[in-house]
Amino acid sequence: MAFKLSRDVDMPRAWHRELPRLPALTALRAFEAAARHESFSRAATELFVTHGAVSHQVRALEEELGLPLFERHGKRVKLTPSGRVYAERVRDAMLQIADATRVLQAGARDKRLTISTMPSFAARWLTPRIGSFIERHPEFDVELMSSNTLVDFAREEVDVALRMGSGDYPGLYVERLIDDVFFPVCSPDFNGGNLPRAPADMQGLPLLRGEGDPWKPWFEAAGLDWPEPRKGLFMEDSSLLLQAAAAGQGIALIRSSLAYNDLLAGRVVRLFDVTIPCPWLLYFVCAPAMLQTPKVQAFREWLMPEMEAFRAVLAQWR
């Protein structure tokens, strides 16, 4: 339903008055910054414009007002008495606008749920499932951020992080979701369908390498005294590593939580029964103050049953 504002609405009388003509906001911003620094150069640096642009804006403002705001002494500038009074009033007005904007955005922020997780987990697990949360909670706008970088909750507008790591995140609420194991996978058509039957049969075959996924611990678990591979295709993203294996480019050492869809679909097959524990676990992480907010509570209540069902699926690959 459209809402139309009319004169019948009981609003403050001042709202019915037309605003007088005001100077351009760009000129006022340039003036305020220049007044605060008493320097056109530093104001230009703050506003990401040139010295000349600040000078031009201030000069245009002075012409519009009909009086000088700065005394100019070569490259140095100093506020006039009138300029100093005007600068204080302009700054107060801008701070009020900034405060009103923050209040307005805070209301919208309550309806936006921002989740940060690794690209591989976002692509393989969260994105295919998040639709059911959105259907259950249409009141929230969901934003997924995929990054391998840890979240700084004090500086970033992120509500929840789903992270593989040690769980040692001081000052944050941390809840363990799943643990994981590594095992080798490859395409069923790899090497012309002549797949290795025992770990030692991988000798001479292309082994795909990933960031933080070393082969040597698995070699040791399989009874092989082999060094870490130094040649072959290397990829930082585990999801891309799995795609390369599915495309028949080699054997990849992959986490079960990442490979399970491809295993079920037959795009890759697991080699051998040897697994090693993943040194990182998946955690639900947020700032303690955010834990009790309706949006984070709603997401957690949706996530936990999903994770319980997922753990049951992963059990068959241990």
UniProtKB/TrEMBL annotation:
Q: Give the UniProt keywords, A-Z.
A: DNA-binding, Transcription, Transcription regulation
Q: Which residues form the HTH lysR-type domain?
A: 23-80
> Which is one Pfam family of this protein?
LysR_substrate
Spell out the InterPro entries in the cross-references. LysR-type_TF_proteobact-type, LysR_HTH_N, LysR_subst-bd, WH-like_DNA-bd_sf, WH_DNA-bd_sf
Task: Identify its protein family.
Answer: Belongs to the LysR transcriptional regulatory family.
Protein name per the record: Glycine cleavage system transcriptional activator
State the species of origin. Cupriavidus respiraculi
Traced from the root, the source organism's taxonomic lineage reads: Bacteria, Pseudomonadati, Pseudomonadota, Betaproteobacteria, Burkholderiales
